[in-house]
Amino acid sequence: MLWRLTIHPSLFQYPLFLSYFLHGFITSFSLFSDKAMQELLQSPVQGSDHHLIEFSQTLTTSAQAEASEWKRKYELERARNLNLENRGKSCLQFQTDLDDMTTNNPTNQPTLYNETNEKSERCSRNGICSHEVLRDGNPDSDSKMIRKASFKLSWCCKGEQSDQQKHDIVSFERGNITTGERSSKQISLKWESSPQTVLILTKPNSIPVQILCAEMIRWLKQQQKLHIYVEPRVRVELLMESSCFNFVQTWKDEKEISALHTKVDLVLTLGGDGTVLWAASMFKGPVPPIVPFSLGSLGFMTPFYSEHYKECLESILKGPISITLRHRLQCHVVRDAAKNEYETEEPILVLNEVTIDRGISSFLTNLECYCDNSFVTCVQGDGLILSTTSGSTAYSLAAGGSMVHPQVPGILFTPICPHSLSFRPLIMPEHVTLRVQVPLNSRSPAWVSFDGKDRKQLAPGDALVCSMAPWPVPTACLVDSTNDFLRSIHEGLHWNLRKTQSFDGPRES
């Protein structure tokens, strides 16, 4: 039986109006209070049009229950949204609320949440979800609800999801992506218990360093009551000077070196930047905080003056101290005969840079470079430097690279004398994996060195794979990381120093 329903034009005078399909399905609905609903349903019908009377009776018998149900769900959902904002509920809990609302909706009525999103993949631990319902601020929009699309951000590395949380980098503000501030502009280290053991590493073949090392060991033992480790070479030198240094400890083999980070609370270096590099290379995993004293040439990473070592060490042992987390590169050599890229040689960690060059060959290097399996370029020239930001003031700077603050997480991609005028240096993000391969048709092999040591040959077909190591090198700051960095480039490189222009010259009129 087909019903014909005619809506009288006077009905559109009501400010709150429900539009129905002929078969009873709701197409649009405006939320209003029970009092307004009662006024609408109980108000007298003007005129004698029987169609208008029939429509009024239909509203009285069927719409009131549905409108009340809609209002109840809206209030329940609004309360849950407010509770979510106040308590800071996690994405998983919020998704559970959505599932509960779907279960409690047996009539299969549409809710204010997108049902497609209810069936979508839930937030994983390494992602961030957004499920927000926004109210249109336009007063002329009849308070209609706008569905804000839900989305998830996740971080991947070489196509695989990363377990590292990024909540300190990206956050959400009512469904919109915003960048989150770091927890602190400067990183501070505070001791939970007093340091008990220190490791002292010295620059070899230096009489002033040997004298300072002996003096520092006596003071640390007598005044600070600390346990002291030194290298085997240094211990022999100390015992030759006096037998009273027999309390100094050392190690015997590589196995004991690999366990040093479990015993040593603090590392003191007496020398230049090379001594800091040597200290970092000793630790293949976690690195204790390093306090570098300047007894070298330039001193980009050695802000402490040896003349005031007592005051400096007293302050550091007491804490808290500012530190710079210097990132390292983890490098693998993959030979052409390897069955897959995981069949590599022992990984090598570098604090400054890894350099691929042509060695003694007179031919240009020919290197194919990839970033996360995406082709970057083919390097033809003297070579290529992959540098950390701590190494940006070393070989990379001499090759035309930029100086970068050491706490900027990135990888510098700097060519050495490229055979192209348009080949400019790049800075890659820290999460990428770089692969440099010698093509099979290369005229000559290439050579790779790690922080200027451990030189290896790369034959045609061999490759070098580099990524950011998970263990940075924490170095103590004299003031803070930014102040120390700027002071080092001013004093070490005389950066932008020139004679001041005379003030008694011609002036603009």
Automatic annotation (TrEMBL):
Its EC number is 2.7.1.23. One of its GO terms (biological process) is NAD+ metabolic process. It comes from the Eukaryota. InterPro entries: ATP-NAD_kinase_N, ATP-NAD_kinase_PpnK-typ_C, NAD/diacylglycerol_kinase_sf, NADK. Keywords: ATP-binding, Kinase, NAD, NADP, Nucleotide-binding, Transferase. It is an enzyme of class 2 (transferase). GO terms for molecular function: ATP binding; NAD+ kinase activity. Belongs to the NAD kinase family. PANTHER family: NAD KINASE (PTHR20275:SF0). This is NAD(+) kinase. It comes from Lupinus albus.
